[in-house]
Amino acid sequence: MGKIIVAGIGPGSKEDITPAVMEAVRQADAIVGYKYYFQYIEPFVSDGCECIDTGMKRERQRAEQAFALAEQGKTVVVISSGDAGIYGMTPLIYEMSRERESTIEIESLPGISAFQKAASLLGAPIGHDMCIISLSDLMTPWEVIERRICAAATADFVTAVYNPKSNGRYWQLYRLQEIFLQHRSAGTPVGIVRQAGREEQEVRTTTLQELDPEEVNMFTILLIGNSQSYQENGKIITPRGYYAKAPSPSAPAHSVDGCITATTPMATPSPEGNGQTESLKPGQQIMMTSFRTILGELRRKDWPLGHKWALLHAIHTTADFEMEDILYTDENAVETLFEKVRNGEIKTIISDVTMVTSGIRKGALQRLGIEAKCYLGDSRVAEQASRQGITRTQAGIRLAVEEHPDALFAFGNAPTALMELCTLIRQHKAQPSGIIAAPVGFVHVKESKHMVKPFHDIPKIIVEGRKGGSSLAATLCNAILTFDDAELLKPGRDL
């Protein structure tokens, strides 16, 4: 009785063929494979060896020929590119053996896979947990493939993409890119390797946002980094964690669309871009995962970046996806307010109640040199409110405007305070740098928000309708203070 050896011949160069595979080819009585691959093993084929080559999509025929030859007592080598066990002939041989109830001995010899060769050319992109996905729907329904893409994206796997495109499959890679951008930052490194290990080899890097599917073909392997991956000197590196705080084995996990994602600290490229890594706090990692989850569930995916950043903060704080309908921002309001903070025009944030100032991150205030104040506890407020017959929050806003007429004003509780500011603006006693209008309740709440909208020269963020609250006003302040983290979708640095 003969024998079938299924051998992976590597990605395409003699140097990448393992000694075990070379020896199997030398000892073979017959070799069966796709005709394109014989050029790579020709130097090792012995005289008298029967070589049977076929065209593409003839895998079953090749397997049947291998069994027929082995049943004649021959040692048959079935060759596949890369590793024969990865989208290769090995699974088919074992399945056919079961179907035929064959007693032929089967041996599998591993080879260097295309994703491994591509990874070595790109540097060290698969230094941590990774997965492989084929976009070919020839034998797998697209619905199944898309579920696997979603799982890989949400679980933060480094992902190798096989069979990314063909003449008949032109849109699937676009869809993969869309899904990954819902869960990964736009700057996520992507490696593109064409004809790995062969004379026509091409290697380059790009980002998830800049990836152009039109530049990809069936001879291309893509490697998409995870949230830790970074580019340096034309290479992609995914840290294993040696220079970051070691994760705790008992750390909790966070559910993302039914997938469990670890919330232990992760390493991320340092903001200086020097290739060093920094450890993320557990709370920040949870917040980053939550933001990716929210982003994946938004109905509209193309919100402008500033609005989207505020929206993610609002939904994260409230768990209320109605925010997508009721959060209003003036055009470029978040961007404009952040620039005013960064260039020193905004030095003070005034709130109507102390719970708003309590929710603004102290680390961000200190980092940016901003003071957050609420006048509600000022001894002058109660006296003025009593004397003038107004609410204490109204009195607090009047005092605030006297001392900080150009502050950023944030309202999360009292519509009367917001209405008071509107009156002072119309009287030319206040010219705020910006307004966050999120009072909550049933009396004068909607009206107060309508009153603030006509001030077209003041950047505004408004939670329309009855909803709002101190925590919501605070988180919208935090969105402004951290807008420089928006593009990388990296919230929570000041936690």
Description:
This protein is α/β, with parallel strands linked by helices. 37% of the residues lie in helices and 20% in strands. It has 18 helices and 23 strands. The chain has a six-stranded mixed beta sheet, sandwiched between helices. A five-stranded parallel beta sheet has the order 3-2-4-1-5, sandwiched between helices. A five-stranded mixed beta sheet has the order 7-8-11-9-10, with helices on both faces. The chain is elongated, with a radius of gyration of 31 Å.
Give the tags.
single chain; 495 residues; alpha/beta; six-stranded mixed β-sheet; five-stranded parallel β-sheet; 23 strands; elongated
Strand and helix map with partners:
Layout lengths: L2 E6 L10 H9 L2 E5 L3 H4 L8 E5 L4 H12 L4 E6 L9 H11 L4 E5 L4 H9 E2 L5 E5 L7 H13 L3 E5 L9 H12 L5 E6 L7 E6 L12 E5 L5 E3 L2 E3 L15 E4 L2 E4 L4 E3 L7 E3 L2 H16 L7 H14 L4 H4 E3 L3 H10 L5 E4 L2 H6 L2 H7 L2 E4 L4 H10 L3 H12 L4 E4 L3 H12 L7 E4 L7 H8 L7 E4 L6 H12 L14
Low-confidence stretches: 245-277
Structural class call reads alpha/beta
Helix content: 25-40%
Total count of helical runs of at least 4 residues: 18
Mean pLDDT: 89
Structure described in brief:
This protein is of the alpha/beta class and 495 residues long.
